[in-house]
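The aim of this short unit is practical: by the end, you should be able to scan a pair of folded records and say something sensible about each. We start with the first protein, listed as its amino acid sequence and then its structure tokens.
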Amino acid sequence: MTELDTLKENMISEDHEVRLEACKELVDYPTDAIDILINTFTDKNPLVRFQAAKSLASIGQDSIKPLISALKSDNILVQKYVILALKDIGDDTVAKELINALGSEDFAIRKFAAKALGEMEVKSAVDPIIELLTDDDWGVRTSATKALGDIKDKKAIDPIKKARRAATGDKDFKKVANKALKKIDPKPKKKKAKSKK
């Protein structure tokens, strides 16, 4: 039995720590590991799922295309961990795929894609993220606002202010908007009061 066979067997162990270690060691077998690790995104243990994403990120370039294909999965858990792995790889192709994910019908994917693009500070994502400021889902709007704050592009200031005005009575969203605006422009110019003559 090869070491790879042992690792494959360890991936179905009842002990989550054995599965976790196997995820780490699979990095040494990138060709075989990619599909195994992507399938691990449905593992019942979040630590194992997280390690699978980290291992795929370590494999890097070779895992981008299979991860992008997995983004099309109907399983929200799979999509979340795919985005996590793609974000850690942080390549131009990855940015394009995450921008495409902003248009997903699934609110969780839109939310995670915006978050990932914000953390990666992808300037080309600003316009599509601005569109999410009017999303039906509160979590998506909040995630988009935080992402725009992380990217720090001044063209997001007015759309964030508009979203903040539209959020009547939503103190939590307004806090997020104010924080994002401060990140983008820490010292906004105050409008000068007109002097009376």
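Turning to the second protein, read its sequence before its tokens, just as you did above.
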Amino acid sequence: MKKFKFIAFIIAVMTTMPILQSCLDDDSSSDSLVIGTINLISPDSKDFYFTLDDGKTMFPSNGNGWISGQRAFVIFKELEEPVKGYDYNIQVREIKEILTKEIVTMGEGENTEEKIGDDKINSTYMWITQDKKYLTIEFQYYGTHSEDKKHFLNLVINTADRLGEGYISFKLDKIQDQMKGKKGLRIRVKTLYNGEKFYEVKFPASN
């Protein structure tokens, strides 16, 4: 049986970090890479589109069958022909899923402090999408890069021989009411080298 260690982010709403947003180079004809959210065009359709973190939308000329609300890296080529209702028309080269999770409420169900854990992890970037629906964290952790051992943010193999990196997006729907009137989020992280740190992530400015 494989043993796992648990890592947790403690999220609290703050009253007061630069925001990394997905953007496109309109003058580039080469393949581009962005982070976005996959959305179904309608509940009964397999057709989808992407919402970028700055609120703009991309229509893919190819592909279907993705889960709505999934965060992902999108490698694509921008097409010249416009599609009505979308900011960009693209040809998808590759889609790489980003781990997308709900926020865990401490003390709810089996979410005890012992089970959630509090292991060390570094946060290298944090940002909130324009629609305030997702908090995305770029992080580092110690673990193995072995192909036969999978890594999860909350479940990390107990082999600390290499520094790994990854991304995760947290859905913010559970705290929308608490976010009203606030300027952003305060994220607590137990870092690898510098003990407990708090990161302030501001909400993006309204368009």
